[in-house]
Design a protein that fits this description.
The complex is a heterodimer. Chain A is α/β, with parallel strands linked by helices. Chain A contains 8 helices and 9 strands. Chain A has a domain of 59 residues. The longest helix of chain A is centred in the last third of the chain and has 16 residues. Chain B is mainly alpha-helical. In chain B, helix 5 runs antiparallel to helix 7 and helix 10 packs across helix 11. Classes of the chains: A alpha/beta, B mainly alpha. The interface between A and B is medium-sized, with 34 and 26 residues.
């Protein structure tokens, strides 16, 4: 796969999770989780609610400290990346916005911290089709607009890896299609996407690889066409593996 | 650190929170001084009482500066913007120290204006009642400049408290409760702690402006005491933020 930045770590998986664990008091949220995300793919990170998806992503992004193992991006811990915003873009929750700040100012505050130009702020606003709305305060936005603003923030640094937690929540059908095409073209440029979801039909249309977890444990990982098959949809596999099949 | 400072300064001015706090503070300072000026004439002629009345600027300036420092952190946790903030700057201590720096700058402005408004309001209202002001230029300078310094340092305490508490309502209630109620009670000697209260942050902040010289610390002692509080609480907040997970 072509590495756009021309660095020498082409063989290193973009995301490498090994033996990862997180314990809250006596409850294990994530247990001995190991998987990797190869460059240039879209990987769906699937699991029922409470399976540990968000906790795993937070550890990957340096917001939470693992109690076991490690989660690396580009072979390093997130916090050890030199300029993380230019390598990794992430959206964890669509509501991570100050209601009294305009969408554009939300992006500008982040851009200043990452030394990214205001021209780029307007570029990503246009990219997510929030051009005139960017001047309004976030409290007037719909959920879909908040999702797109979050995505715009993730794209500010023109990153090589996108990490998205449930990005299609709140999007209307046109928005879902827009996101799918966007992620597809993003990956076609040799970039990588890790996207958590529990919308399986939508995921099956978008991703190359899947990682499925249940109660903090890995239950399946691999290319979508190996995990699922024509006679056995991703939904069938998912419900069977997560013990929710009826 | 420079880019984090620019980002934090931009955050301050891109919502109306700061403006709202500032306007409320000015209104309360003017109100406090005017109400105190309505006391009987005899006590108002005393030097120490005049200092205390004009010192309402420092008191409210320090209170609002503490709140603005705390809000700079708790607002980010309340609205979740702390996550994107830390994704851009994973070195959390750097984020907190940038907030300390920008809050200290804003806090100094709050304190300066609060001190000046109190002095101006006092001159007008006491003058209108025909009361001679016994304060000299040194008193006025200390009231206004001391108010700026006290508020600046208290805003650093606020950032530290906000970083330790994280939740907005408990942080705001805690700060108001402490400065308005707990220190007020101790100052009133209700719990008989004698000379201990003057070493507390709110009392040290007042000491910097030269109020109640027979009760509070002298400015030259109060200043290093409050600097120590500001550094210790801000450092505790930065350390705690670097250690704890962000949900």
């Amino acid at each position: 796969m072509i590495n756009q930045r021309g660095t020498a770590d082409d063989a290193t998986p973009v995301v490498m999770v090994s033996g990862l664990g997180k314990r809250f008091g006596t409850a294990d949220a994530v247990v001995d989780l190991t998987f990797s995300v190869p460059r240039g793919t879209i990987t769906g990170f699937l699991g029922p609610n409470g399976a540990g998806k968000t906790t795993t992503l937070r550890m990957l992004l340096g917001l939470a400290e693992p109690t076991a193992g490690e989660a690396l991006v580009f072979g390093r811990r997130y916090r050890d990346l030199d300029d993380p915003a230019r390598r990794v873009g992430a959206v964890l929750e669509s509501s991570d916005l100050h209601p009294g700040r305009t969408g554009r100012d939300h992006l500008r505050a982040l851009a200043l911290a990452a030394e990214i130009s205001t021209a780029r702020v307007d570029e990503v606003l246009a990219l997510v089709e929030l051009e005139p709305a960017g001047r309004r305060r976030v409290r007037t936005y719909s959920l879909g607009m908040r999702q797109r603003l979050g995505l715009a923030a993730a794209l500010l640094g023109d990153p090589e890896l996108l990490v998205l937690d449930e990005p299609s929540i709140g999007l209307d059908p046109a928005g879902v299609r827009w996101l799918r095409r966007f992620l597809r073209s993003f990956a076609q440029k040799g970039r990588t996407v890790l996207v958590s979801s529990h919308m399986l039909a939508e995921t099956a249309q978008t991703v190359d690889d899947v990682v499925i977890i249940n109660r903090g444990h890995l239950v399946a990982a691999g290319p979508l066409d190996q995990v699922a098959s024509p006679g056995r949809t991703l939904e069938d596999v998912f419900l069977e593996l997560t013990g929710a099949a009826s | 650190m420079r880019r984090q400072l620019r980002s934090e300064l931009f955050k301050q001015r891109s919502t109306r929170t700061m403006l709202g706090l500032f306007a409320t503070m000015i209104g309360l300072v003017a109100l406090a001084v005017v109400l105190h000026s309505l006391l009987p004439i005899e006590p108002l002629q005393r030097h120490d009482n005049q200092l205390t009345i004009l010192g309402r600027g420092e008191f409210l300036g320090a209170l609002f500066a503490t709140l603005l420092g705390a809000l700079s952190v708790t607002t980010e946790f309340r609205h979740g913007t702390i996550r994107p903030t830390l994704l851009v700057t994973p070195l959390r201590g750097r984020v907190i120290w940038a907030k300390v720096t920008t809050s200290v700058l804003a806090g100094a402005g709050f304190g300066l204006v609060a001190g000046a408004v109190a002095v101006a309001a006092g001159l007008v209202t006491l003058g209108a009642r025909g009361i001679d002001l016994t304060l000299d230029a040194a008193d006025y300078s200390l009231l206004v400049a001391g108010s700026a310094v006290a508020a600046a340092l208290m805003s650093a305490v606020g950032v530290g408290v906000g970083s330790l508490v994280r939740h907005q309502v408990p942080a705001v209630v805690g700060i108001c409760g402490w400065l308005l109620f707990v220190e007020g009670l101790l100052a009133g000697d209700l719990v008989g702690l004698g000379g201990v209260f003057k070493f507390l942050p709110g009392s040290a902040a007042s000491g910097i402006t030269g109020q109640q010289p027979d009760v509070l610390l002298a400015p030259v002692v109060a200043l290093p005491v409050l600097i120590a509080y500001a550094l210790a609480v801000a450092a505790a907040g930065a350390w705690a933020t670097s250690q704890r997970d962000v949900g």
